Amino acid sequence: PHDSTSGEMIYGVSGITYGKQIPSGSHNATITNLCVGCHMQDVSPTDPAFRQAGGHTFSMSYSVVQNGVTNYLPKVDVCVKCHGHIEDFNMVHKDYNDDGIIEGIQTEVQKLLDELSTMLPPAGYKANSNLYVPDGKVKTLSRTSVQTNWPTKYLNAAWNYMFVNVEGSKGIHNAPYAVGLLKASIADLSGDANNDG
Question: What phi and psi values does residue 85 have, to the nearest 5 degrees?
Fold first, then answer.
């Protein structure tokens, strides 16, 4: 995928769905002036985020230096209107990766990305899929690490990995779609599409 898949992610399109109905979130239907409605939120001149987040910065976080250390803080004011009191984007919602621990959306999505990466071919993969055994190592995929000699099932999964990863929000723009694509890819590679073990 190209460098940003944010538009496609918000609308829940362009992922490899494996013929499944992948759920999609409601941000595209509920936010007025999509993209601008959140990323260009009004920030008061008295707010520490002024000229660092919102407005024409398009940024959703800002920096604060405390004791010589720079910390980046989320600007969630616009999110609170719909989601209620939250303090950061990694809001706890549900156990998306089914590990028995309910963590923040971004943490859950990252764990699904990591799990999927362990099933994908490592560098130096040879074009004989009969010899391929997953190495179980967490990888960070890029356009240059995916090879055209991979069998289609790995290329499809790599597309979904990169589609979610390069989008950057780690599920904030459309958690159901990001999670659905990653879980469908994991199910396809594991041969357990119905999650019955």
Answer: -65, 115
Beta strands 61-66 and 69-74: pairing type? antiparallel
User: Which CA distances in Å does 99 have to 78, 108, 112, 170?
Assistant: 31, 9, 10, 18
Spatial separation of the C-alpha atoms in residues 121 and 99, rounded to whole Å? 24
In whole angstroms, give the CA distance from residue 192 to residue 116.
13
| Residue 175 structure tokens | 């958690």
Contact 99, 111 (CB under 8 A): yes
- Could you tell me which of 125, 197, 111, 124 has the C-alpha nearest to residue 161? 111
pLDDT tens digit string along 93-149? 899 999 999 999 999 999 999 999 999 988 777 777 666 778 889 998 887 788 888
For the chain, give the percent of residues with pLDDT over 70: 95
- Interval 2-28: pLDDT, tens: 778 999 999 999 999 999 999 999 999
Rounded Cα gap, residues 164 and 1, in angstroms: 10
* pLDDT above 60 (res 43): yes
